[in-house]
Amino acid sequence: MAGHGLVMGFAAILLPQLRRPDSIIPIDDTAGSWIASILGFALVAGNFIVPTIMAKYGRRTANLLSIVPMIVGWFCIITATNITALLIARFLQGIAMGMSATLGPVLIGEYTSPRNRGAFLTTISLTIATGVLVVHTLGSYLAWQTAALVCAFITFVDLLIVIYSPESPSWLADQGRYEDSEKVFKWLRGESEDEELRRMIETSIIVRESKADANISQSFTSKMKTQITYISTTVRKKEFYKPILIMIHIYTLGQWAGANILAAYTLDIFSHVIGNDANISLLVITLDAQRIISNSVAVYVIKKIRRRTMLFITVGLNLFAFVATAGYTYAKGHNMLPYDHPFIGILLIHIHMFTIATGTVPLPFIIAGELFPLEFRSLAGGFSVLFLSSNLFITVKTVPYLFKNFGIHGAYLIYSVVVGYCLVIAWWFMPETKDRTLQEIEDEFRGRPMSPEELKSTQSLTSLKYMNKDRRCSSPVV
């Protein structure tokens, strides 16, 4: 996930260097906006690729494959001599980001205990913030090609970490590999959460056997009809469409709240709000450092505060930052301020970044890792992240247009309207997920837990399989 921060922050150091008169690749505003925003367009491809890989070959395999286009993209940037090469490189990186944006919250949600899941999911935004700080610092002292080389090395380290990581216990259970699932589950969480392990395996058995029964002695035509019926039934299930509806709005909120705009156009925003007289490079590094500190605080706070409370407080402050910055820049541009000082603009930008670092960046990943049922997690996750991709592209691509035609004050008011609408939808539909198992959350969307009849019909089979596995697992290891 740190690769997201490296890629998003790289635009902020690349574009100013390419605008210099001595640049080997001269660009205009249109080319610059495409270089910054093509990531969102490419994310869509990654969203479509990864669900099938996640479901069929596993989370770990999908994770490994997502890093390949990221590394190739960095080496394409290092050797680039024209805009086309840069666009191809950023497109490859966008595919990698689309894959990991779907995969990351799902994998962490399946790895971690409900007690610690929020903190672990918050580390996604912390590593993204760290990536942004690293690349902005590199860009303050190095040429963009050298900075890209360092980023490629960091991504290679990511690859080594994933190679030595285990497969998801939830996916192993979904594949019928219950013994492997139990071993990985206990390796990750110890011996204290056997109840969640038992419920996860029982649910996986029910789902697998119902699918197997549907495929017995069916012709091709019957199987096609069954598949169509399954799809039409699935899309009407509350535990399928409700999480997607919620995450569509949460991901939209996260993108319009300004995280990627601040990461990709940091220098431009400081210039519009404060002016060009300040040491903007130092201000950018300071802002990134504040983001990391705020993310670190969020890792602790998210363990103490309910998800809904955290969302409404941080997004409320985000709306205040948008409106206050819009009012300040409008008044400043029309000489309506009785008193002005660069510190006012710096404070407003830092308040905005604080709301992003503690709320609108970490919370979408946390909520995504907790909402989706196991049976539909890959499909639902990929579909909802499609809106993350499209909104990332729209927001980053339109920044130059909005700033030029409406000013930063007009653009910020537009952002605040979209964020406010999404917050209202979350208020009405999003359940509380803190300290609840994934199965309990799924049961709430369904409106009921798995019926006793469903569990009873498989209880004897479950007990037999589980007893045999317990015996094998209890054998001494030589």
From TrEMBL:
<protein>
    <submittedName>
        <fullName>Facilitated trehalose transporter Tret1-2-like</fullName>
    </submittedName>
</protein>
<feature type="transmembrane region" description="Helical">
    <location>
        <begin position="309"/>
        <end position="331"/>
    </location>
</feature>
<dbReference type="InterPro" id="IPR036259">
    <property type="entry name" value="MFS_trans_sf"/>
</dbReference>
<dbReference type="InterPro" id="IPR050549">
    <property type="entry name" value="MFS_Trehalose_Transporter"/>
</dbReference>
<keyword id="KW-1003">Cell membrane</keyword>
<dbReference type="InterPro" id="IPR005829">
    <property type="entry name" value="Sugar_transporter_CS"/>
</dbReference>
<feature type="domain" description="Major facilitator superfamily (MFS) profile">
    <location>
        <begin position="1"/>
        <end position="434"/>
    </location>
</feature>
<dbReference type="InterPro" id="IPR003663">
    <property type="entry name" value="Sugar/inositol_transpt"/>
</dbReference>
<feature type="transmembrane region" description="Helical">
    <location>
        <begin position="279"/>
        <end position="302"/>
    </location>
</feature>
<dbReference type="Pfam" id="PF00083">
    <property type="entry name" value="Sugar_tr"/>
</dbReference>
<keyword id="KW-0812">Transmembrane</keyword>
<feature type="transmembrane region" description="Helical">
    <location>
        <begin position="379"/>
        <end position="403"/>
    </location>
</feature>
<dbReference type="GO" id="GO:0005886">
    <property type="term" value="C:plasma membrane"/>
</dbReference>
<feature type="transmembrane region" description="Helical">
    <location>
        <begin position="62"/>
        <end position="81"/>
    </location>
</feature>
<feature type="transmembrane region" description="Helical">
    <location>
        <begin position="87"/>
        <end position="108"/>
    </location>
</feature>
<keyword id="KW-0472">Membrane</keyword>
<feature type="transmembrane region" description="Helical">
    <location>
        <begin position="120"/>
        <end position="138"/>
    </location>
</feature>
<keyword id="KW-0813">Transport</keyword>
<feature type="transmembrane region" description="Helical">
    <location>
        <begin position="144"/>
        <end position="164"/>
    </location>
</feature>
<feature type="transmembrane region" description="Helical">
    <location>
        <begin position="409"/>
        <end position="429"/>
    </location>
</feature>
<dbReference type="InterPro" id="IPR020846">
    <property type="entry name" value="MFS_dom"/>
</dbReference>
<keyword id="KW-0762">Sugar transport</keyword>
<feature type="transmembrane region" description="Helical">
    <location>
        <begin position="343"/>
        <end position="367"/>
    </location>
</feature>
<dbReference type="InterPro" id="IPR005828">
    <property type="entry name" value="MFS_sugar_transport-like"/>
</dbReference>
<feature type="transmembrane region" description="Helical">
    <location>
        <begin position="31"/>
        <end position="50"/>
    </location>
</feature>
<feature type="transmembrane region" description="Helical">
    <location>
        <begin position="244"/>
        <end position="267"/>
    </location>
</feature>
<keyword id="KW-1133">Transmembrane helix</keyword>
<keyword id="KW-0325">Glycoprotein</keyword>
<dbReference type="GO" id="GO:0022857">
    <property type="term" value="F:transmembrane transporter activity"/>
</dbReference>
